[in-house]
Amino acid sequence: MTDASTLIEGKVFLLGDDVNTDIHCSSKYLPGKGSDYVSTIAFDELSSGLAKKISVSGGILVAGKHFGINSSREQAVEVLRLMNVKCIIAESFGRQFFRNAINNGLPVVECDTSQFQNSDHLNIHMNLGIVENTSKNIKIQTQALPSEILKIIEVGGLIPFLKLHPNWEFVE
Amino acid sequence: MSSTICEKILAKHAGKKEVKPGEVVICDIDYAMVTDTRAANTIKMIGKMDETHLVFAKKTALVLDHYSPPPNLEAAAIHTSMRQFSAQHGSKIYDIGDGICHQVLPEGGHLTSGDLVVGTDTHSVTYGAFNAFGIGIEGTDVSAVMKSGRLWFRVPETIKVQLNGSLQAGVWAKDLTLHLLGHFGAEGLNYKAIEYYGSAVAAMEIDDRMTLCNHAAELGAKAALLEADQKTIDWLAAHGARLPSPVFADADAVYSEQLSIDVDQLIPQVARKHQIDDIVAAQDIEQKIQFALIGTCTNGRLDDIRQAAHILKGKKIAQGVRMIVTPASRQIYLAALREGLIEILTMAGASFEAAGCGTCVGITNHLVPGNGDTVISSANRNFKGRLSNSNADIWLGSAATVAASALTGKITDPRTVEGGLWRSGI
Fold first, then answer.
1. pTM for this one?
2. For an interface test with A, which of B20, B23, B24, B65 has the most A Cβ atoms less than 10 Å from its Cβ?
């Protein structure tokens, strides 16, 4: 795996602690509405107009503790993709959301986000676990995801991975 | 070797001698489950796999519980698609009224000690009561399981919680888990596995052990595990499970944290409105209630219904209070019927609804509370908007606390009312 294939660049869009993706980023409480619609209004109650702002040029969602807590719906990841979210950085994730992101090829990084601000520019080296905030001149070394997880993310998620490797072969 | 129960079960299913926290392992699964809330997504993800032969579909149960019975056409359509999927792929189906996934899986003999079981519901941790590693997953995960019989896991750190002493009469596993939520906080054990030990656990009946493990979901835990003892083995045998392979931790197992709690002094606890970890003693609360609910995968079992019947026998619930009971399964419904509990509670003013998740999600029948109502429920979640009305307040307590509160019309410590000191298994 080359560094270039796992380098993610983008602008920060900030959210707080305990973001519940079922409420803010799914149709669970919007019966009959699809992901296309949710992707235009997601997180509005937490950060007005965020979905529209982020979808223009893409970006990195940065949150505090427990992003995607409780019984996180997998649809949230589909919505985040439609919103043009390239990666999510949070201090911690709800366990199910973390799985869902990996299974659908959306990069996730656990990192101290306390010094990050809206519009900061980030370079994220997934395979090294390094998060660089070039606006603040901060470089944070995080625990890199295990190589098997990076592989699943790299090929776009678990279903594409199993099409390529039906017996779960993780050959480097 | 120095492994926890959690690590040993994962290692065994990954074909390894041992595994360490942080490691990613690919494990063989023993049984899988899909509920109606995630069935549409699961069927969509299976469609993406272009796979017609699903090797594991026959070891996967489809459970129609959250929408039991279906409140609208969309839910009914999901149920139809699940019945079609079952007919096509040979998956076991539990139809409406059969019960909640976490009750029908063990009752149906689908899991045993030492198993690794996945389900599309966060409360799959309940299977830890049987010394099985139960874990909640989503549609893509279960699609991968149906295709390959396997799934990836990151090995969690394990925390050991020793529960010493014995619970007083009128105090139940629900009170203990609410106390633990107050201690660790919601999501306080995110990613971690919990192992519960001690005399208080040994003394619990299976129903209460299931409550103890079930509520670990609110702690954010990946799994909650108990050792198997004679009670476990007898229960599994009585329900037609495969022969158990009990798994015990090594004497020198490495835990990320160890905690010892003396439960002798514990008294009935309640979670205040909206917040699962805002815990107070029931006796310290002055709060009127209008709606009392007993049911759910946390506390809708026979011992819960018995608690209520002991308190409400020959009595009437307070004026202005409605009370609804949803047994966790058809088997429990039938057992309650045969014991005369349904007659006792119906005469007291309670109504029974179909076995299922109704009292938790609040989207079937007349389970939606009115604006301004205060609800006391034996469920596991009380965030604002649960039960489909954000203008109602939901408080949580044991089935005994719910019944005592229905009797008096306000949140009540069950030890203060007649029948509130009943104990199970004695």
1. 0.95
2. B24
